[in-house]
Amino acid sequence: MVDGWQDMKMGFRRVALAVLAAVLVSCLPACGNGGEPATKPGGDTAKAPAELETIAFPIKGKAFTLELAIDGDARTQGLSDRKSIADDGGMLFVFPSPVKTQFVMRRCYVPIDLIFIDEDGYIDSLHAMEVIEPVGGARWKNPFTGYSTAGSILYAVELQGGKIAELGLKQGEKLELPEAVLQLKAQ
Asked: Which residues of 127-144 are buried (b: 16+ CB within 10 A; e: fewer)?
């Protein structure tokens, strides 16, 4: 009787492992390539799913051209895997409705300044996010330090590190959101 029970337990384990393996394999296309950066032509390791649309976004008199992150995949990817951010570049994240959220520096090679903006255009909070060392390490790929909103936001802007100080931005300050930004619809 004991031998039969042991055989049955081993059979259950084999079935459970087979089911788990099938689930993991079916997940691979949706999960990307295991978290390793894809290489774009020219050798840059940006994992942008496609070339993202851009939008003009002036901040305190300086013109920026920001990539749009309006769907879940683009918002999750953000500026991860980028080796540089243009002086006048960055990313605008648009959420479907006001949210309390946090961002992390997952697979980020360069410092990033983060501006959380509420639905009325006021700066909710500002963060100077630093690269997690060592680059390529476990914490760099799966960070546990998050940069949170103070309240609910509708937009987030990521810029090259140092831009918050350069522009003299302050929490509670109102930004003039371009009409094109206000008309964006997130998914």
From this structure: bebeebeeeeeeebeebe
